[in-house]
């Protein structure tokens, strides 16, 4: 029997919760304007730690979107995922209660899970005893909780999965969704959520030498410049509706972007800053999967780890993979305005890329005004109007993972 051609996977809906922005519209406005949301950490139990700046989400009321039944058994990171998923479904104009639940799946990525919930219950354990630990401790901390709760809440019974792939897992989750679509699933809610700003979670991050301890929010995260001192952590959630192109067409939904190609590699953790070869290989393989030439790339959304060694490695990887086009193609890292939300960071980049294509605008990298570029990149630091047909997204984890994803505009 002849092999059936793979079904194209398109993005039809976006849902975002990010520092300084509750909802996709507010997120795009802040991102397009280059409005920073980094600030001094104010969370209880965190203010005495060496890391003093983060991307915090203020004004988010989970009860406004999520039923109490789910709130009591879930952590803050799952609240972000549940809200973003609901907004993505609404944006895609999809019925949240599908007639055929086995045609809808869920894929999320997470790096740390429910640290805030877990810390609270452990404090109860040590201060009051095991009878004072709630029954949901066994599930709320788990990094798979977002996938499980989204699928339970929506009644989605199609393929569900969790990607535990370090930060690059955010792009891997989108790629996994595209593979599910290619093999017969009609719709997949895909994305990531992180809430790493509880005391226990932050202390765990202090072992990362790439974490910025600069106290000035305007200077704490400045990749590709002389002021680079590492990255700033952030909390966020972003979910995308990924559909088979034929399914979207059948229900009259306009595809907003095509998941055209993806690749992932691994660089040994003890050399995690030296990711040049692994990232370059991922880029080349993603371009091949997308049947895309280097000169077809209209914008690069950089990983932007923010240390001199890692930034040079990323610039070199782009030069290796894109050739002369690497010096010309616009490169941006909007995450400098909100921080790196681990697995959610590249999914936010994917949402930003879709919006940038639609608005024909490359959003800026938010940097201190007196800094000097240190890499041979066409780094965009002010909003730039431009037609965008093809975007390349890059992501690297702190433990050696690398990923590249090609998105194409589908007007």
Sheet having the most strands: 12 strands, mixed
Total helical elements? 12
Fourth-level CATH superfamily of the largest domain? Thiolase/Chalcone synthase
What's the end-to-end separation, in Å? 35 Å
Residue fraction in strands: 15-25%
Per CATH, the class of the largest domain reads Alpha Beta
Nearest-integer average pLDDT: 94
Task: Just name the CATH architecture of the largest domain.
Answer: 3-Layer(aba) Sandwich
Structural class: alpha/beta
Gross morphology is globular
* Share of helix, binned: 25-40%
Instruction: Note the quaternary state here.
Output: single chain
SS elements, strand count: 16
What does this structure look like?
With 411 residues, this protein is an alpha/beta fold. It has two domains: 9-250, Thiolase/Chalcone synthase (Peroxisomal Thiolase, Chain A, domain 1), CATH 3.40.47; 260-409, Peroxisomal Thiolase, Chain A, domain 1, CATH 3.40.47.10. It is 32% helix and 20% strand. The strands form three sheets. Strands 1, 2, 5, 6, 7, 8, 9, 10, 11, 13, 15 and 16 form a twelve-stranded mixed β-sheet that branches. Helix 7 (169-182) crosses helix 12 (344-359). The longest helix is centred in the N-terminal third of the chain and has 17 residues, at 76-92. It starts with 8 loop residues before the first strand and ends with a strand. InterPro entries: Beta-ketoacyl_synthase (IPR000794), Ketoacyl_synth_C (IPR014031), Ketoacyl_synth_N (IPR014030), PKS_Beta-ketoAc_synthase_dom (IPR020841), Thiolase-like (IPR016039).
